[in-house]
Amino acid sequence: MEVYLDNNATTMVDPKVYEEMKPFFCDIYGNPNSLHKFGAGTHPKMVEALDFLYEGINAADEDDIIITGNATESNNTVIKGIWVDKILNGDKNHIITSEVEHPAITAACKFLETQGVKVTYLPVNEEGILEASLVRDAITEETALVTIMWANNETGKIFPIKEIGLICKTTGVAFHSDATQAIGKFPVDVQECNLDYISFSAHKFHGPKGVGGLYVKKGSEVTPLLHGGEQMGGNRAGTVDVASMVGMGWAMHLATSTMALAYEKNHVSKLRDKLEAAILELPETIVIGGKENRTPNTTLISIRGVEGESMLWDLNQNGIGASTGSACASEDLEANPVMNAFGSDSELAHTGVRFSLSRFNTEEQIDYAIKVVQGAVKRLRGLSSSYAYAPESHKSAL
Fold first, then answer.
1. CA separation (Å) from 104 to 18, 111, 328, 377?
2. Which residue among 68, 221, 276, 386 is least packed, with the fewest CB closer than 10 Å?
3. What domains, with CATH codes, occur in the chain?
4. For 316-340, how does the pLDDT look when each residue is reduced to its tens digit (9 = 90+)?
């Protein structure tokens, strides 16, 4: 049996989405910026896709959604755009973010530091959540932007975006959130949370890879990251990938429907909890950050005495896909930075394994995964020189 439990890295394209995309490869293939009928033929479905995107995040009609290549591009557009708009051309020189952001945020902020920008990296608490009060205390007259993820890609912990948004609105500071792991997991409302910008990526909610979005509230500035054409109102040059844009729109439509969000909350979470409970029956296993206030599909579990990379090898040999953390850093064998941010000891920092489910996982798959994980832990602990394994004391758990 093959079981895919790495949906925070990417998801399968929903077959319904794929069907909507197919005509735009060989039938309706004109450049949407062309004046002839081949180009104009793409417009109805592009408009429909944009409508789905607006509805999915509750954007207002006067706001803007820019189609990008991915959330990484969207994140860079905001951060570097703020640098141009409010730092190089203004009197502000400060950005606030957290210690557990995706590398697309952290690396962009590190780059700006080389250009003389001050960046504050706020810590998370013992539950892995950034407290809104820390953002309020960190804001100064020089602060140009606050950028905080909506949900953590490794732990699934949900950050207090609504509270932070109110703080930023009150202080007049631009607020951006990387919502990549939030959309399709729970309702995302940009108006309710007073957001100026959010980033998202289609392939995280059963859309195609290579396409993302950037929400820009009316009145918010955004200097283009890419110049060279008038596409997206001049905010993002380059011929639009119509098939992918249509796919992202439909994926958003399906993932943010009332029925889909209820399924995530009531069914996907139960499968996650079943897998998690079975692993926690093993001795010296913990859920990093605890079980509260997180997305319904994600668990990051530390298994003492078992290297995360070794566990992944065993799982892969048995047809199961999981992760030790962010896929964008999967080749980096250094200790998991999120676990370091939690203050994990040097051994535990290498033992985190992330399981992230989707609406396409079944209970039969989870039952199989439980058996494989339990067997792998027994085997790997038996080989570990750093884990004092006592077969008799652990027999009932294994």
1. 27, 11, 9, 33
2. 386
3. 3-9+266-394 (3.90.1150.10), 15-255 (3.40.640.10)
4. 999 999 998 544 544 555 555 566 6
